[in-house]
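Recall that a protein's primary structure is simply its ordered list of amino acids. Everything else, from secondary elements to tertiary packing, is in principle encoded there. The following example makes that idea concrete.
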Amino acid sequence: MSKFVRSTTSRYKFGAHISAAGGISNSVTNAYNIGCNGFAMFLKSPRKWISPAYTPEEIEKFKENCQQCNYNPLTDILPHGQYFINLANPDEEKAQKAYDSLIDDLGRCEQLGIGLYNLHPGSSLKGDHEAQLKQLAQYLNKAIKETKFVKIVLENMAGTGSLIGSNLEDLKFVIDLIEDKTRIGVCVDTCHTFAAGYDLVTREAYEKFWQQFSDTIGYKYLSAVHLNDSKAPLGANRDLHEKLGEGFLGLEVFRMIAHDEHLQGLPLILETPQPTNEGYGEEVKMLEWLETLSSPDDKKLAQKNQELQDRGEKSRKDQQTKFAVKQKKGTKRKKSDSENDITAHLSKQKRVNKT
């Protein structure tokens, strides 16, 4: 008997991104065997544009496994789109290729009866950012019309610059352009949120972020959460997932999540760097344990947090040093750019004075 017995008392759908090796139906039993109440997987190889279609037998086996393991594919499963799908690409040919892969993914969801689909919103690259946001929305509207029921769930991102979704306003802009708003949602990734500069660590910071989310996007669009600690410090713009409690977020954030009524009923998916499914099973059980702790001052919580913080100390120090170096270089570059601007301005002024 598995030591990761699936909880029947938790109010939350804690789970993990699970392997579907050997057939998509295996993702269901893999999730069940480590005690997940929700889970994610890739619908096809994340390293290939084109993958073989599902056989009718595999589709039927997937549905049978969901029924036997008591997963509702409409609400409990959050497949992850391929990372290289970029519907905002200013290169028309590449954007179309990404769209074809998206449509294939959505079709696979509907074959399996899956109701949610997670997508990185992409990058505007060297294009005009607002124009590429509009292009992204256009492709999403087209995809929604070509499919029947899958909700496309856009994920917030860790980076800056041309990367879409590093701020909540990007996601708001796209959602406003979606014609059928019942078919669009948002997945908040805790690591990405923190790395993008939205603090979550204290109760005050946590509530401030979710108030910003509510004011900018609205809770009605919140469809899932990715649960990851962060190897990199606040505002580092580095997408570096860490095991729960070992990064800069610490365990208290996840205890607050495990008591947040807004998150009940949503897939809450681990994407931490675990070498085996068993590691995810341990983290699912830890999240369910955090659900039983009502106080941030609980001695057992402090003890566990310290244990995990000690384990991740070296990694955090390394990333803090790298971040400090990056900030220093950035300050020098800004100063140099500013000096160049002044020099150019004075030069221009001299020419004007001469005339």
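The two ends are 90 Å apart (CA to CA). The chain is about 45% helix and 10% strand.
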